[in-house]
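Page header: ASSEMBLY MODEL / three components / 1296 residues total.
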Amino acid sequence: MPSIYSPTSASLRDYLASHSHLLLALDTFLLSLRLGEFNNPSYSDTPSRPNEIPGSPSFRSTESGELKEETKEGRKVSRSALTLKAMELVRSIVGTTKWTSSGELLIILEALGRLFHSSYAKDPCLSNTIRRLMNLVRTVEEDLKTPQPTPGALSVNTNLPLTTDPGGVPSGALSPPNIISRSTSTPSMTSALISQPQNASTDLLYSNLERFRSDSMAESPEPAGVPVPDGPLNPSNVEGIAKKLPPYFFEYKAEFRQMVMEGFQEVIDDLEEGRREINEQAGLHIHSNEIILTYSLSRTIEIFLLHAHQREKRQFHVIIAEGAPHFGGHVMANKLSSKGVRVTVINDSAITALMPRVNLVLLPAHAILANGGVVAPSGSHLCALSALANKVPTVVVSSLTFKLCPMYPHEGQDIMQDFVSPAFLGVGSESDNVDLICPVHDYIPPELIKLFITNVGGVLPSYVYRLLSEVYCVEDPIIFK
Amino acid sequence: MSSLTELSSPFIEIVLKDLLSFMSSPSHSDVALPVAAMKVMLNVIKRSKAITMTGLLQELETAKEGMLGLAASKDICGFRSHIPLQSGCELFMRYVTRSFYEMSSDFELCIKEVLLRGETFAGMSLTARQSIAEHGCEFIREGQVILTHGYSRVVASLLKMAAEKQKKNFSVIVLEGRPEGGGARAAAVYSEANIPVTVVLDSAMGYAMEKADLVIVGAEGVVENGGVVNKIGTYALGITAKALNTPFYVAAESYKFARLYPLNQADLPRVETGELRFADTTLPGKLEEIDVKKDLITVDNCVIDYTPANYITLLFTDLGVLTPSAISDELIRLYA
Amino acid sequence: MSTEEEKEAEKARKKAEKAKRAAEFAAKNPNGFTKPKEKLSKAERRAKQEAQRAAKANEADKSKSSSKNPKNPKNPSSNVDIGSNNDPQASASRQVLSSSPQTLALPPPILNNSNGNSNRKQNTPPRKSSTSSNVPFSQPPSTLNAQSLFSHLSPPMKPPLTKTLSPPPQTSKSIHPSTVTLCNAYSRFSITGSNSRCIAMLECFKKIIGDYEPPKDKVMSMDLTRVLKENFKVITESRVHSISMGNAFTFLKNFVTKIKHNEETSVSKDNLLLAIDQFIEKTVQFASDVIAKEGSTKVKNGDVILTYGCSTSVKKLFAKALDQGKDFRVIVVDGRPELEGKKMLGYLQELGIHVTYVGYNSLSYVMKEVSLVLYGAAALLSNGSVVCRVGANGVTLVAGAYRKPVLVCCETYKFSKKVQIDAITHNELTPKPDEFKSSPCSDWVGVKYDVVGEGVAGIVTEFGIVPTTSVAVILREME
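Prediction written out in full:
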């Protein structure tokens, strides 16, 4: 079985060569991604005429009938379904192939991450999932490497127990419990000073790796001067993040495989169950006789409101802004009102006019960034600004499982941006003097957000960076290029 | 304790000699004072004849006091604050104490470990600026205008990396930085890196803020709640940036994280400062000083001020990009 | 002594009277003094009036086309059809409203305008909205919802489906055919924008005055005033008048009352027509020219100007700035469903200015590169609030977040003594767009106007650029 040394797509395919069914599944999945079959409605085409707006009965079907289908079911493939599919694929690859060490597994995952990114860069959910799995692998590895009382070895005590958090988050709730409760990957002075050198991410340190290898804890001290072995233990043979992995990552451990597979299963369960924990908070935030404003279509918010209406039996009224350019607001309104929730639809321009009477603003999130900011449907920044001006709390309801991104909004409003056709405006122009644009996302800075309602509870925007360090490792690439 | 007084004078002399030689050594011409201090501490450990941890810690404490005393003098840092020096030394000593508690068995081995890790730590501190620059220059986009204050080597390396390595085109507005003219000196450094730079008066910060897309400043110390202590004028800059909705970034190495919790400007540690002189620089010819040595005139040459955390958007550190609330987290974890 | 006795007797008498009154009251109102009971009685009274009027109206306008009755698009399920005047049950269902804790006070049902002004005098709504709207109102459901937020406003006007609007028989003499045409245009929203509507109304009045012949026994000023008022009412019933129209009408009325008795009719009429022309030329058109000149000084080379919707003064401003040789480009933001910005887009294309045309959702994205935000106003209120097209408040907010200056162009004839803080206390409701008519979710709320309280750097008027706080001062000066 050839060992995989580099996370390129070519070497991954070589590695999978003997598992043709896996290769087939992978290629089919990547092809579907590229063809846009899993396109989130955010990126799909917008209606080009008023009577093509979803929810409108005089709705003409296009040749492929795609739009019409979307109206009927609301969404072809949701992002969580997509992530689940990806997870299943990754699990089958990881479960079937015969890698022997965590280092190899990390290289496989990194290769998969690069493949996903090259096929579907605009949605971060797949990269986030891969990153999460990579962190899982690292944590399992660290867990297995229990401290041995070799002389001269420092014990690993990098994490203080998380007792009380500002957001009331139970410690370790994000990552699967028990086996993965500690993370050695937090960037901190403590870890920089005390733990193994691999946590300091500079090349200078890596060059010291040779010197320190005699001190590393997993094995008996080697005498200095032993020739560097071939294979993955030789730094020049590996690429990507594996370059910075200490040698014990490339050793075989018997229990590792099983623990990793268990961990994968827990991540999948997390994906499937995320909404339940969000819904349980519905009763805390929705009271009686409230007027709630929400923007465009969001399945999470829809289920949240339905839960409040049906289970908690709260009386409230929802105002939904139609949400150009996809007009998801109409679809959401139809769905909610068919279940008995009192709903009113308004134009985007009427949001500021009605805001003085609104009690609560609920916004969906496309991605949650490291500084607590949110990438949301375009037009929601305006919603949040208007809420702030009228002292109405803005709450973002979103599960964190694949939406939490370790990046900062360097580009401002351009982050994760995409553009769709502005044909719904009903203006066409061939003149050079006229530009028509229609962005899909907005960036909402953390100062406008009062609270996040997530599957780990209520979270302040300033606490998001903490959740990041629990789920992802700082070593793993932010963008899988 | 008697050994302490024996150690005092010659011991401290050696310490200070070390410090001065580190500061002026050609290979480390750009070395920061706290890093040099840490190297001095390492030397103290190497030379130490103590056989218990307590003794060693006492030696380190004495060395620290000595260095702090020297730091206030003009030769070393020209009346800058001693906060980074203090925080760096405290961090180092904290680290030594912690290693000792974790390795209570063998003193000799503990020392050996401490020395090894100490070298690493010192080495990291040298490369801290580079990793800060790497984190920070992602936030600079093409065509932006960056406002900065005085001369901070960290900010300079950040801007130089963005201009030289990443080949981004941007321009800089720098506040002159009275009284030591740090900004004017920084302008020369930036122009050599082919960055177009505009120098303005300190008082022009409100005027210049309109044109700026972001503000980047360095720090003398980062305090427990995520606020920063820096050259005088940073606080006003933070307030102006917030009023105009401009992002305000602080670039600081992790050894500058200090155990301070200032409540307001008056709550800052006192720093001895030099004389402040005034002149009308618009008049042609040689500068004529305006005489302020009269009764009832007090000249307050405050060199540092405290910028609270709510004016700061993000901090670039060698541990990564952190929000102000993450800083207190770090400090809690380290000193708890 | 006696006085004391008298006093005591007095006290005792008063006590007895009080007790008697209390007993009487208790007998009348076994539930005690509760407010809803009052309302009930009022409503009962109104219901009676309603029934009487309904009986009268039924006889009068059997031939009336149903198109005159605006439907109530908000509650298709409720059986209150405003248009049908003969529904005594409507009054009963209205009583339900009073018991709901959330709804506002119950204004009386004002009948359809089919009977002209005969209704107006009898109905005095307890809560008079500042523009005396005469249109029927719908019955909002008794639970909290978005419509109940606007139960104090008249329901949205639906454009009539048929072309002609046959005038009511009683007042056919006073209602000029051009009024009817104007009403059609308004209710079909083919004339929009405060300046255009005002000018159209004044042109219509010019025709009325031109054709007017005073009866022998009447004083011209009073009779003409009556005629004008009737016409104005009809116009208002087709669509609520804007503040610009109201101010223009006030000017016209003032002028008419000043007509001398002994003057010849033709002279008076000529004077009137001249006055109207001057009003249009000076206060409306010339003012917007001056505004254009003043505002164009704020446009610099290389500027990117953002505008919302379409406004006459802003159009002139762009043309002026272009004449001055300035190099700038414009971003036009448009709000659904009216999409008035298309007119601005067409105009700018003709001028040859580079335009970026975006929908309302793109505001936060484009605002970064904007140097100045400009839009027009429908009115300026005494407390400094700017009344403009719905959505302008959002534009102002986003501009504030990016620290961009906002200028509003407004002629002084649109200044009003009213005050308003938010867009809900007084507004005009819009009907549900056709495309969503049979959508399963039937609730729709749309308003026509927005009120911008703060965030505006200055108002460009023909007196120059003034801060929003100076409106009250200018109003005083103008008097």
